[in-house]
Specification:
Blueprint lengths: L17 H12 L4 H8 L3 H11 E6 L2 E6 L1 H12 L14 H12 L3 H11 L8 H10 L31 E2 L5 H4 L6 E8 L8 E7 L5 E6 L4 H15 L3 H4 L2 E4 L17 E4 L9 H11 L13 H12 L11 H14 L1
Parallel strand pairs: 3-8, 4-7, 7-8
Antiparallel strand pairs: 1-2, 4-5, 5-6
Length: 346
């Protein structure tokens, strides 16, 4: 090969180029799905979905309003957002394992265990320390990270399990959810919720969905905490995943909030809907955990309207790129893409 710098696999977290955006525009015009485009460009599907949303504009043709993706619009939006980008932390030369863990945590906002586990899997260091030892060093002040900088370090108290009876019945109860969904062995079962910033009805909201098996998260900015806004975004997801929507979204588990009152209509498209018991957020524990990750960057009281779609997209990518101990420090993004490969290959 003449070009020694050529690689068939783009670097992770490398930004889309104008050439790639032009390819996206052309493939969309040819009727390719978001999944097909992600495979053609060797990019995560979430990156493609966010780029399409970023570069989609409204046009008027023949007295009709249409929405279309334009590469130039996506590139202009990208350049505008890059003006405000700055490195949050100075990149240091890593000479030993402890320094590497310190830098990894600060740069990626990872937990101690995620940083230690990923370093061990990569095999970069011949000698490593366990997670508990790193925590001990932090408590003793021996490294440049304090307990105040840790994402989560709390003493947890176990709460008693209380099942309350639903006062309003929006659909099938979670107690009727089959065991094969509960044990997380089958792909395609999701939990859904909304995240608000301020309590103002004029503020926008976030719609969050988490796939139970892979823990892959979809975070979408919607016009408000209403059933109309939720269903509008669900319709967009149906367009994004096309004919395979019911295979990617086999079931969705929701709470009894009024914003999810219209979800039951999805059952006509073979997507099963289940509703949790009232005051039982633990029945959607995966979704609640991921909402907690969002809260690190979007605290309560902040207006969601102040955060751009691109900012929300970057948060989504960070969450899905976070190594998980339960998966041997693989990321939800890797597992989700592998599952999509199996579905679209059928």
């Amino acid at each position: 090969m003449d070009n020694t710098q050529f690689t068939p696999n783009p670097l992770k977290n490398k930004h889309l180029t104008l050439t790639e955006r032009i390819k996206i525009e052309l493939m969309l015009k040819d009727g390719k799905t978001s999944y097909g485009i992600s495979k053609a460009l060797e990019r995560p599907i979430n990156t493609i979905l966010n780029e399409i949303k970023r570069g989609t504009i409204t046009q008027i043709k023949a007295s009709k309003t249409i929405t279309v993706y334009l590469a130039d619009a996506g590139q202009a939006r990208y350049k505008e957002n890059r003006k405000a980008c700055r490195k949050q932390y100075q990149i240091l030369e890593c000479e030993d394992f402890v320094k590497h863990i310190e830098v990894t945590m600060l740069e990626n906002s990872w937990s101690v265990d995620a940083a230690v586990g990923k370093a061990r899997i990569d095999g970069t260091f011949s000698k490593t320390l366990c997670t508990k030892t790193i925590y001990n060093y932090i408590d003793l002040g021996l490294i440049g990270i304090t307990n105040f900088q840790l994402p989560l370090k709390l003493s947890r108290k176990t709460k008693g399990k209380i099942i309350r009876k639903n006062k309003k019945i929006l659909g099938e109860s979670i107690r009727n959810r089959p065991e094969h969904i509960n044990d997380r062995k089958e792909f395609g079962h999701w939990e859904i919720d909304t995240v608000i910033g301020s309590k103002s009805k004029q503020d926008e909201a976030l719609l969050t969905l988490v796939e139970r098996k892979t823990r892959n998260s979809l975070v979408r900015k919607i016009s408000g905490k209403t059933s109309e806004a939720v269903m509008s975004e669900i319709e967009r997801l149906k367009e994004d995943f096309g004919s395979e929507f019911s295979n990617v979204f086999k079931s969705i588990t929701s709470d009894n909030g009024s914003e999810f009152s219209a979800l039951a209509v999805l059952e006509y498209s073979e997507t099963k809907i289940y509703f949790t018991h009232p005051y039982s957020s633990f029945e959607r524990g995966t979704n609640e955990r991921h909402n907690g990750l969002l809260r690190r960057f979007i605290p309560k009281g902040k207006w969601i309207t102040d955060y751009s779609h691109d900012t929300i997209g970057r948060l989504e990518e960070w969450i899905n790129g976070l190594p998980r101990k339960i998966f041997g420090y693989k990321t939800p993004e890797e597992l989700f893409d592998a599952e999509l490969d199996l579905i679209y290959a059928l």
